[in-house]
Amino acid sequence: MVYELYYWPGIQGRGEFVRLALEEGGAKYIDIALKPENRGGGVPAMNKFLEGPRVPHPPFAPPFLKVGKQLIGQTSNILLYLGGPLKLAPRDEAGKLWVHQLQLTVADLVVEAHDTHHPIAAGLYYKDQKAAAKRRAEDFREHRIPKFFNYFEKVLTRNRTAGPWLVGRRVTYADLSLAQVVAGIRYAFPKASTKALRKHPRLMKLHDAVFERPRIKRYAESGRRLAFNNDDLFRNYPELDG
């Protein structure tokens, strides 16, 4: 099976959570965002499914994954699907739901991180909502980062099996996604994240363990993993870091 991943070119965004799972799982996939438009890639290829009149189950937005003739949208839904084939989720139903629940909580944190620089409307430029962004970012730094980090640290502490993972003894897609969020928040809020992570050593250990995994490390060093930038979900505006 060769998967096709569709996402916006030039940014990691929500597509990166899927990429990390595909890389860790050793899957064969085509990253359509990296293909030139004149060779069936880029935004036109994506719009064919988003806007095409003959697509029976169109995705609302990218990322989406093409598996044969099937289209699967929404990051958490894609990862729920991939968890089994890529062996990145437990086999039992309760374990699958627990990992999915953790992934949905990660998704909540991603939304809150994004909304620090776009608190009023996604359609407005950052410069048009800077005053509101400063207020939102202060609350995110002082209250929301600690709340989410405390939760994930608690989950890590209560997993009493050997290893740094959220669930059981093996890495899951939720571990990969959580590490990605920690990396993104470290980029966007270097001062606030340094302070917060001092109090959450298990979370920092998980982040390091994920990015030291051979396949993830090889991917990160390949040039295919895009750098964080200020057109992305996680943005570094020093005035928002306190």
From TrEMBL:
Residues 92-240 form the GST C-terminal domain. The keyword Lyase does not apply. Signal peptide: none annotated. GO terms for biological process: glutathione metabolic process. Keywords: Transferase. It comes from the Bacteria. GO terms for molecular function: glutathione transferase activity. Residues 1-90 form the GST N-terminal domain. This is Glutathione transferase. It comes from Steroidobacter agaridevorans.
